[in-house]
Design brief:
The protein is α+β, with helices and mostly antiparallel strands and 324 residues long. 60% of the residues lie in helices and 17% in strands.
Length: 324
Amino acid sequence: MIVDCAQYSGGVRQDAGPLDVETAAERARGGDGFVWLGLHEPSVGELDRVGRAFGLHELALEDASSKHQRPKLEDYDGSYFVVLKTAHYDDEREEVDFGEINLFLGRGYVIAVRHGRASALALARERLERRPDLVAVGPAAAAWAILDKVVDDYEPVTAGIENDILEVEDEVFATRDVDATRRIYFLRREVIEFHRAVQPLIGPLEALEGGLVVELDEQIRRYFRDVADHARRIDEQLQDQRELLTGVLDSNLALITLRQNEVVRVISAWAAIVAVPTFIASVYGMNFEHMPELRSEAGYPLALLVMAVAVAVIYGFFKRIRWL
């Protein structure tokens, strides 16, 4: 469905309501400003209609309809196809929900195709419309507004993951009876998946920042540089979080092993303590005839005393070496 479609000329929006696809394509070819068309979850038929109207490359349309693409920037004979991954962190489930935005950039048009829980672009459009100086730059300004919105929405995700990492650290080091291995593993998996969405975006942003792919006005290039800096910072934070979670997981496993060793030591100590009186009792339970102690009046209490002393000595030894 069409979310919004408008022509921008002279630094301002020319239409109060959304244009239809054919009218937007005709105005884009007219060379007066540019057209920004926004679509959300379009069908294959709707994408084909847009492709025919704007002359989009069939391979780019195929990628836009298949979804689940990696972030990338592709050149199709002067028009460009950009794939962006959007992210939203569900703190209750501790999972990152991903969406996708496909951008078609060409002379006189910007087409944004949103899939899934993608970042809503209404705020990006409103922000750009408040800057006539940037609108006058052309389609690159709309591309910057979209990229900036997507990258800005990464910040709450990294913050949410960071909070959960701090919580799981407290669980590991402050609580002895909780095994946080499962939570750590799934948090680490979310960080890895999020990193896969962010890291491939660095290359296209640096290409746009340096003007290696598209000739950009110096003014708008500075804004792309700012977006690229934000993306690099988030990428570095995610790498740090991956390493931190790896360390927490190793520490958690080491603490589990340590607790298991403590249990084994306690069991071993008590087994050693019980072994001595058991051995003495088993000797006198053999019922041999020639055992003088059996006829002695002091035999029974002496055997009990020897058992008690042996147990006390061994218990004291294990207590001293902190096995008990």
